[in-house]
Design goal:
Number of domains: 2
Number of helices: 4
Strand order of the largest sheet: 5-6-1-7
Strand content: 15-25%
Oligomer: single chain
Distance between the termini: 35 Å
Structural class: alpha+beta
Number of strands: 8
Radius of gyration: 19 Å
Low-confidence stretches: 1-23, 178-192
Order of helices and strands: EHEHHHEEEEEE
Helix content: 25-40%
Length: 192
Amino acid sequence: MPNRRADVLASNASAPRNRSGGGRCNNAGIYNVAPAPIENEGFCWERVVACQSFGNVKYSLYEQCPERTHFTKWAASALLATLPIADKAGLTTPLLKAVVDTITRVGVAHTDQLEGILKLKHVSYCQLQHKAHPIIEDREPPANNPDYVPSTHFEKYESREFTNRTFVQAPESEVRPTEAQCFAHPKLLCTL
C-alpha cells in the first residue's frame, strides 16, 4: 500500500512576482499556504495566490482564460528569443523558423491571435515540491502517524529537520499517487 502522506515544505524562495496576483510570502520569504484547498482542477491564479501549485503536476489551461493568455505571451517571447540562439548553434529547424516568423508577423501583443497559433496544453508552476522523508515525530497525535492524512484542509507544522521552514500536509482531496509529498521551489514550465 503506497504511503498516503502529503507533506509539503514551503521554501524561503521569493514568491512569484507577476501582475496577475502572485503568491503570498511572509516577511521571512516563506510561502503561506492557504488552508482550504482550491476547488479548480486546472491552473488558475487563485491556486498561485493560495500557494497550492504542486511542482510535479501538469495543470490544464482553460480556453480563453487570463492564465492561458499570460503564458501564451511568455511562450511566444521565449520562442522569439530562441531563434537567434538556435541560428548561432546551427540548430534552426524549418518548423521553428516558421513558428517564429508567424509570431513575428502577428506580434506578441496580439495574444488572441497567438492563442490560435500556440496551443498550450499544460502549465507546471512549482510552489510545493516533494519532501520524501519528513520528520513527523514532533507532531501531535494523530498527525505523527505515517498514515495520517488531514481530512479537509492543508495543515502547517514545523520540523526540527529544517528550523527555518514551514511544512504543510495536504488534505485527502489533494493526495494523488504521484504527487503526494511536495516542498516549495518556484519554477515555470510550459508544454507546447
